[in-house]
Amino acid sequence: MTQSVAIITGASSGMGKAAAELFAQKGWQVFGGARHVDAIPQQTNIHGYRLDVTDQDSVTAFMTAVMQETKRVDVLINVVGYGEYGPVEEVDVAAVETEFQTNYFGAVRMVQAVLPTMRQQEAGRIVTVSSGVGNVYMPTGSYYSASKAALQIWSDTLNLEVQPFGIQATVVMPGATKTNFLPKMAASFKRHTNPGSAYQPLMAGVQKMTAGYQANATAADLAVLFYRAATDNKPKLRYFNTISDRISVYVARNHPNLWHRLMTRNTARMMNAK
């Protein structure tokens, strides 16, 4: 029996690494891509290759290497991503462009790379990691939220286009997870906090709030959700990790004025936090 094949980006850490390990344990051939190849799990069924999704030449070289090992791609999981946090006015545009090159255009490059093979085999599944913050925005998170919102509408449109070829596209909404995302978020705050900024009270309030934030889900939990999204016979457009995430997104999408009032109050509290 032919082994199923999964390509997983961001396979060197966090959710991507956990997904690579789980799919390999399930008997899949996993081709993991990351900039730090040495950190990709070295175990049976996992093949690690260098991949920088912001570089078209790197994506092309990665796919060439993969197709030398296999003739099919059953699943692509777009995991790699990160967040730039700071006031709209003060985050450098170059940093925003880099964020979008990774979070959004990186997924675009990978999908364009795998679709010819998936169309030829008349089957495939594309799983893209977005985030609830693509719907449930918060102050200082505008650019990260925008990149994740873009992925959602892009994936839904992609799904319409590729269904006739036996391919489905779906989105996973992880929610807060015990990975290195929150420490990186804190580092982003420091990069984009300008001395004497008019937004200092807001930044301090947001940092205080996020510093006390406790993520309950683990990367392994999300790997299980990725596997569901990749293997369900009738995939959903969205896979949420928690009920609370689902409810928050529902409120933000269906009652935008209510959500904005809630966030306005929360922002005022953060501004006054001591």
TrEMBL record:
<dbReference type="InterPro" id="IPR036291">
    <property type="entry name" value="NAD(P)-bd_dom_sf"/>
</dbReference>
<comment type="similarity">
    <text>Belongs to the short-chain dehydrogenases/reductases (SDR) family.</text>
</comment>
<keyword id="KW-0560">Oxidoreductase</keyword>
<dbReference type="InterPro" id="IPR002347">
    <property type="entry name" value="SDR_fam"/>
</dbReference>
<protein>
    <submittedName>
        <fullName>Short-chain dehydrogenase/reductase [Lactobacillus backii]</fullName>
    </submittedName>
</protein>
<dbReference type="Pfam" id="PF00106">
    <property type="entry name" value="adh_short"/>
</dbReference>
<dbReference type="GO" id="GO:0016491">
    <property type="term" value="F:oxidoreductase activity"/>
</dbReference>
